[in-house]
Write a structure and sequence with these properties.
Layout (H helix, E strand, L loop, with lengths): L6 E2 L3 E2 L2 H14 L24 H8 L5 E9 L4 E11 L5 E10 L7 E3 L1 H6 L5 E5 L1 H7 L5 E2 L18 E6 L8 E5 L15 E8 L3 H4 L20 H5 L23 H4 L22 H22 L14 H9 L8 H6 L10 H10 L3 E5 L5 E6 L4 H4 L9 H8 L22 E9 L22 H13 L13 E3 L2 H7 L5 H9 L1 E3 H10 L4 E9 L10 E2 L5 E8 L3 E7 L8 H12 L3 E5 L8 E6 L3 H10 L7 E5 L6
Parallel strand pairs: 7-9, 19-23
Antiparallel strand pairs: 1-3, 2-3, 3-4, 4-5, 5-6, 8-11, 9-10, 10-11, 12-13, 14-17, 15-16, 17-18, 19-20, 20-22, 21-22
Helix pairs in contact: 1-2
GO molecular function: translation initiation factor activity
Protein name: SUI1 domain-containing protein
Pfam family, one: PUA_elF2D
């Protein structure tokens, strides 16, 4: 609904009485429980009881000093006008954002208050949470509705997900983070199965990435979703003790054809259940919960053991502290789990353990004296310190680890046995594996103080962002007298080198920093990486089997393929794509494929404003989706593709 930027009029403050009235309406509509010791009509003042009371619940839903404004936008294929009201506020530690919206006139208008993702990120279990694969989530975030085959979790579904109910949808990668808000078109809670069903399940209203999410009174970009949110993974556990499984990433219920990845969103394919298939692979025995717990603990110990072996003299053996929950799972646990197949990947998930979520797992490691943890702002739990000298780490006996390819393949849904590989048509770029790495080379200003003085042609003189972070930590921890604050390790006192080398510009920020004599560790890292006089940016494009030592990094920002849509001769639209050669894509072969797939004429010419030899492929019509599919087949990722739509009317 908010793909197009709405027109929002001037904000006006909400009176306290109006704010309380609106908050009470939300409490009533969403059936939020008020503790019995707090009368529903009173605001207890000075209560020392930490349990939620009516005032705290009101403030969590609609913070104090909230504002409102009227808005207008258009919806539907006929672009019918929609009018309503947005409610803007600031959650603790956040920015001023749209927290609620109400549709009052036009298609879909019902006068109901709908939460935005910012409200859901601060109010766990406000609505029921459904799940969908990441591929489908990307379609939802482009404005599509969620079809019934796109529901990823197995029945029973949440009891509150009845027809007409407001629900949130999360992807499988971040199953505790709502990214999409909509209304149930059917009674999802009554579904017995998903396979073979058709039709809309959830009508989309708002999602991370739309114009409502992007709005800010200070013109700041929208806030990205967190990696993990405590509370959103507990609703199912309370309703059903039996359901402790991780939402499986391979969603067999989606009848998605290889050439039409939008089928789960727009129209599910009709598949006959009696269709003969090849004999299935043998089913592996699922490990017990105790075995999964032991595997997670051993994986953590293995990660510490390997860090200690690989970085014997580095501070914290190369581990950057504090450790975030997402980093713990993706970089320390998953690579050291005994995952050798896609089926095993479904067993070894955090929700299959007795802890159910990362926060409780970290608490367990703290209790076992492996780590020292801390709750941050009442949200996620982070690891502040690690005991590398624990006898369990020193006496650890390594076991055989799965290959990197096995781990990556285990994360992908298994292809059906009778699926035939797509024909490449003689194009060597189809099926290639690419890895674009951003690298940094230190200048003489920071060598040899922070980085060793190496030749510019030495492959070791190029650092990833994580390597720059580790080098900075080593420098900070080696200083005598210490410059790291004992009370808060994120605060750094400026020594002569930092003051005279890093913060040397005449900007107000540098003057304030040097006058204060302190900075933050993250701010210092950001300054070093972004200042071209300290670090020069480079990039390297690695193909299958290549390492950084095999290629010479090139200066500048990592390249992207440019896709331009523009209008010619009235209403005629063309799609142009350039900068293909750097990724090993042959323009003429891509043009041939697009001509067949799109049934449109194509042409190849020198790209305007580009170096000689950089060609541009032109295809008739708006072919961005077909082009994206063709580029993904050639090893590209969506973040390496820039789309410029010049067909939109200027305001």
């Amino acid at each position: 609904m908010f793909k197009k930027k709405p027109t929002i009029k001037n904000l006006s403050p909400l009176r306290s009485s109006d704010r309380r009235k609106i908050a009470d309406q939300i409490i009533s509509d969403y059936k939020i429980e008020i503790p019995s010791n707090t009368p529903a009509g009173e605001d207890p003042a000075g209560a020392s009881n930490p349990a939620p009371n009516l005032t705290s619940i009101r403030n969590a839903l609609l913070p104090d000093n909230s504002q409102s404004a009227r808005f207008t936008t258009t919806a539907g294929p006929k672009l019918r006008e929609v009018q309503g009201t947005v409610y803007v506020g600031t959650h603790p530690g956040g920015e001023e954002r749209i927290l609620w919206f109400k549709l009052e006139h036009g298609p879909g208008a019902d006068g109901r208050l709908y939460p935005t993702v910012y409200t859901l990120w601060n109010n766990p279990n406000l609505v029921s949470l459904l799940y969908t694969p990441e591929m489908v989530m990307r379609k939802l975030q482009s404005g599509a509705d969620l079809m019934t085959p796109g529901l990823a979790n197995e029945p029973p579904f949440p009891k509150r997900a009845v027809q007409g109910a407001v629900v949130a949808v999360a992807g499988l990668d971040r199953y505790t983070v709502p990214l999409f808000v909509g209304v149930c078109e059917i009674d999802v809670s009554a579904l017995g199965e998903v396979q073979g069903t058709k039709g809309h399940a959830v009508r989309g209203l708002h999602w991370e990435g739309d114009e409502l999410w992007a709005w800010s009174s200070s013109s700041r970009p929208g806030q990205p979703a967190p990696e993990y949110l405590a509370g959103w993974d507990e609703e199912e556990l309370e309703e059903e003790d039996e359901e402790v499984g991780e939402i499986e990433e391979g969603v067999d219920e989606l009848a998605l054809g290889e050439e039409s990845p939008q089928a789960a969103v727009e129209e599910p394919l009709d598949e006959s259940p009696d269709e003969p298939t090849e004999e299935p692979a043998p089913v592996e025995k699922e490990p017990s919960m105790k075995e999964i717990d032991e595997a997670f603990v051993k994986a953590f110990i293995y990660s510490l053991y390997k860090l200690k072996q690989d970085n014997p003299s580095a501070p914290n053996h190369g581990l950057s502290l504090p450790v975030q929950p997402s980093f713990l799972i993706s970089n320390m646990i998953t690579p050291h789990l005994p995952i050798y197949s896609a089926q095993q990947a479904q067993f070894y998930q955090i929700k299959k353990t007795s802890w159910k979520n990362v926060k409780k797992f970290i608490k367990y490691l703290d209790k076992q004296q492996f780590v020292k943890s801390k709750d941050r702002s009442g949200q996620e739990t982070i690891i502040l310190d690690v005991d590398f000298n624990d006898t369990r780490v020193e006496q650890f006996v390594p076991y055989k680890l799965p290959s990197k390819n096995a781990i990556e393949n285990a994360k992908k849904p298994a292809a059906s046995a009778n699926t035939k590989p797509a024909a490449t048509g003689g194009d060597p770029a189809v099926g290639q594996t690419l890895n674009v790495q951003t690298l940094y080379r230190p200048t003489q200003k920071v060598t040899p103080t922070i980085f060793p003085a190496l030749s510019s042609s030495d492959p070791k003189n190029y650092y990833k962002y994580s390597d720059v972070s580790n080098r900075l930590d080593q420098y900070l921890q080696s200083q005598d007298p210490p410059i790291i604050d004992k009370q808060n390790r994120r605060i750094i006192s400026l020594n002569p080198f930092l003051a005279n080398t890093i913060f040397t510009t005449k900007s107000s920020e540098d003057r304030t920093t040097t006058a204060r004599g302190k900075t933050t560790r993250d701010g210092l890292l950001k300054r070093i990486v972004e200042d071209h006089s300290l670090m020069t940016a480079h990039y390297a494009i690695l193909r299958a089997g290549q390492a950084l030592s095999d290629v010479k990094p090139k200066p500048g920002a990592a390249p992207k393929i440019t896709v331009i849509l523009e209008r010619r001769t009235g209403s005629k639209t063309v799609t142009k794509v350039s900068n293909l050669e750097v990724f090993g894509i042959i323009p003429s072969l891509l043009a041939e494929e697009l001509q067949k797939k799109c049934a449109s004429s194509t042409s190849i010419a020198q790209a305007n404003g580009a170096p000689r030899g950089v060609m541009e492929v032109l295809v008739q019509g708006d072919q961005r989706k077909a082009l994206e599919t063709a580029l993904l087949r050639r090893g590209l990722k969506t973040q390496w593709i820039d789309v410029v739509d010049k067909t939109k009317k200027k305001k």
